[in-house]
Each structure stands twice: as structure tokens, then as C-alpha cells.
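Table 4 source record.
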Amino acid sequence: MADELDVLDQVAHIEEHLNKIGYQVSRKGITDRFMDEIPVLAAEKYDFVYNLVESINNKGELNYFIPALLNLYSIPYSGNPLEAMFLTSNKTLASKAMKNAGIGNPSCYFPSQKNLLKPGRKYIVKPIWEDGSLGISEESVFDCVPGFEEKLEGLDDSHWFIEDFIDGREFNMSVLAGENGPEVLPPAEIVFVDYGDTKPRIIDFKAKWEMDSFEYENTVREFPGDKLGKELESRLKEAARACWHLFGLKGYARVDARIDKDGNVYVIEINANPCISPDGGFVAATKQGGYTFTEVIQRIINDLNR
């Protein structure tokens, strides 16, 4: 699958730059036998593990087991700690935590709470645990009109939720650890070209992974720079920093947000293990920020979990 090949691209990219810094690198795959595989890493006494595990057997809800076991065996590792991985991977828990902390994010409901949806409003149904737009298509967006219940048939509360659809501009904020705290890199805007008035402006699975699709070709990342406006840029960056501190993020992360017609910022996802491949959004943001990838990797491994 394209998302699995993307992880291999990340491995090669990171290995190249760890070598430049002076580290010798060994690649280790993780399977559904991870309970046996992590102790082997402990026995081999590596300086640290660069953790790129996004899912196990294509199940995002299992990814937090890896930092849990790395903790158990006292193996230093890059990226986000166990607690942050768990809380941000579960989108309904993350939403509840953000609301309690006063960080704007859309209202959400479980399928069993469909009676709470407001007639005439637009919603989007998403998987609770998956990232990379798995399980999301243009059919995920729906209007609460008679017959909408058919959209939710067969969806259980353990794996799906419904969110207010914020029909506005979308931004990605990449955040990198630094000596003086997290640095929010220049925000990227996702521009939906020629989507017309009826096609939902979302980054669905096609837009992210199917290279021959209309959605892939017409979903474009741009860095608006000064055109963004200082006030909006400030509020986007403040939301990203607030998420970093709330969830105890480390190393690097990406915060995605949408802006409603009144200019309110709504965080729609915190990605604690964002793609770091050469053509990915995180690396593009670091280039906009003026950093080489070797500098980025050095800052990530300066913020290891120990």
C-alpha cells in the first residue's frame, strides 16, 4: 500500500541523515510479535530507537504499545511518548481534552448519539483511531437531512465518531522541538483547486494516496507566508503550541486546523507521528523555516524520551 511504502521512504531518509551526524543505523521491522521483538532491541543495547511505527497490522489503535514497551525496557526513543501517542491517536479523547483546556475544536458525537445531530447542519464521520485519511472519502461528509441515518449504519462507537464539519480553509502547523521550547514552523494551507460548490473540500484517502485521482492532483499545499496575515498566523501557531503543551508532545508533531466563516480556529487533528518523508508536509515546512533535514533530525534526537 502507498502509506506503507511511504514509511520505507521515511526510513531511508532518516537513515541517510543519521549517518551524516555520525550514527551507525540498523533497521528493525515491527510485526504482530512486537512483545517478543522489543526485548531483543534491549538486549542489543542501541543508543536509541527512532520510532516510526504508525500502526501494527494496519491498526492505528495499537501504535502506543511500541512506546509503552520501549519505556518498559528503558530504551531511549525519538518522537512522542506513550501518553501523547495514546491520547492523540484516540480522536475523541483528544477532542475532550482540548475542550477542557479551551482549545477550539469541532463538537463530536458517537454514532449512537445521532439523535443529537442538528437538522440542516453538515457533519463528517471519521475513524477514531486511524490517521493518514484512512477510512475517509467524500461520502464521509453528509447533511443532517431525512435519511442521513443510512450513512451511519453498521458503525460502532468503538471505532467511529461524527464531527461538526468546519467548511472553511485548512492549515497544517508543523512543530519542532528546540532548546527554548517548541517552534511552530510556517503554516501550510491546503488549497482545493476546482472542487466546485458541491464537492467536499477535505483531504480524503484519494487526495493523500491515490496519485492518479482528481483529489490527489487538485489538493495542493501552499505556504501563504505574509499573505496569511499576522493575526491569523498568530492564532494558528498559538493553537499548535497549546496542543504541544497539553498533550506533552516531544520531538516533532503536526497540528491540523480549519477556520470557520467567522475566523475561529478549530483543531481537527494532532498527528504525533507525522510523515517525515522528503516530499511530505513536515519536511516542506522545515525547508520554509530555513532548516536542513540534518538539523531537523539533530533537534528531534536532542529531545529523546529517556
